[in-house]
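Two records follow; treat each independently.
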Amino acid sequence: MYKILIVDDEIKIREVIREYAEFNGYSVEEAADGMEAIGLCKLNDYDLIILDVMMPKLDGFSTCKELRKFKDTPVIMLSARGEEYDKLFGFELGIDDYVVKPFSPKELMARINAVLSRKTIIQPTTQDVMVFEGLTINIPARTVTVDGEKIELTPKEYDLLFYLAQNCNIALSRDKLLSDIWGYDFFGDDRTIDTHIKNLRNNLGPYRDFIVTLRGVGYKFEI
């Protein structure tokens, strides 16, 4: 049984989500603010976190940033703010989906089901560790080093880099990257890919140019 943590300062919203989630067979725990959520996540493992943005003590963005220091748990963010900037900022922090309030509980369940059923498709490879000049990619260990220094990436940034590297010198469309990494049922759009590529390049520093933009198509890892 999947275990979900609902983090929202509005008790009525938590109650509605709990009712629908339990009806769909999920185990549910609740937190009223970001600080409480972080404490629970240090003690327990969850399969998914539903995280509100506007909360007392610690807002959703700050909470997500703290959680990403020690957990790779998928996050669906809830917010009354539907501006593109807020959505992109959330994806930069490593969230998996963004739902704008007011929302349909049935749609939220569909998004929860999509995130939980999504599995990253990584092409088989005989190389567990790949070295490109000073860039080392260790897939089993999920580590990346740049000139000997380990860099920290979000879960989706790791998946994206691994996929690009394993398909080295192959042109990959945005649609293919979305379907193979985020899943066919992902609710986002091409800007999600572009945002993650931008962040990934920034983290790769001197080796950012390994990721080549194919105008009108997508991207490829080129050596």
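The next record belongs to a different protein.
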Amino acid sequence: MAEPLPLSYVTTQEIRCLLHWLSGWAPAQRERFLHDLVDKAVPCKVLPLLEGLAGLSMEPGKPPSIFECQMRLWDQWFRGWSEAERNEFVRQLEEVEPSLASRFYQEVAKTAGQE
């Protein structure tokens, strides 16, 4: 079995940064991240896409919170990662946040067979 390609320096730093942010997020923020991660792992679901778009709206004149900025960066980074890099993120999530990773797998499993 071939060894996975090493991650680029940039991707490695993005993953480290994201895991650091995650450790400081409040339970509600972690929950939002979990749902976003599930939505990214199980694409082509119309309802989560619409929910995600609704969450992007901001009040006029109000700057985004630090968490909202972090979620936007996470989204940009994830879109740029290869499948191997995404899998490596989940592997590291399992090490750093095993209970959150377990919930992620449970939520993904629940979507099986849904259309």
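Discussion point: The two ends are 34 Å apart (CA to CA). How would you locate this feature using only the token line?
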